[in-house]
């Protein structure tokens, strides 16, 4: 890879909010949603994706052209070491990551034993991920750092994990809530993962490991593991509401997003 080969960004083909990529799954802009008062979340500054280990030179040129100044990598240490992200030669963004593990059982790691993975078992496994996430100290720390960075840093940001759907999906959803986006639109944005035009990239990266851990995986079970369901977000919110009374209370008490920070983020990210 040379800087000459990456010097010019290709014309960025888009399918809706998704960028067409060769080695990055689920890269999309999660701005553009309406907020009260006739404003909209800014586009061109908030991006989300899966990991970048297989990013092509063209993908790296595209990322570079987006002028991303902050990368929030929600993966744990073992994921980052096992799947290191490729970077553009002129990459200069701040990377925020956790020293340790952020998930005990990410779906791509398997862990179910040599059993037939049915849709119900896959659903239960994923619901367990979302049940633990609100109280996972590592995720609390990373979501806090995500909001700190969005508040303090200028320029565009990219939040990602491995598949860009669970940890990343909740991060994006929390921010859109803070910015005032209607819940129905937040759920719609969360579910867009199921329409990502790069599903084969995720399958190539994840399926061999999952099959080695689980054994047979039924087709609908694969969708439950590699996609998202509305009840995943519902579970996260229900856990938060049970323990804290509301999502806003959790944001303020646990993640440090008080009313003053909300107003600063809205001033920066809503146009």
The side-by-side strand order for the widest beta sheet comes to 3-6-9-7-8
* Rg calc: 18 Å
Helix and strand sequence: EEEEEEHEHEHHEHHHHHHH
Query: How confident is the prediction overall: mean pLDDT?
Result: 92
Q: What's the architecture, going by CATH? A: Alpha-Beta Complex
Q: Assess the beta-strand content as a share of residues.
A: 5-15%
CATH class assignment: Alpha Beta
Count of the separate structural domains:
1
Q: How many runs of DSSP E, i.e. beta strands? A: 9
N/C terminus separation? 38 Å
Structural class computed from helices and strand pairing: alpha/beta
CATH topology category name: Protein-Tyrosine Phosphatase, Chain A
Count of alpha/pi helices: 11
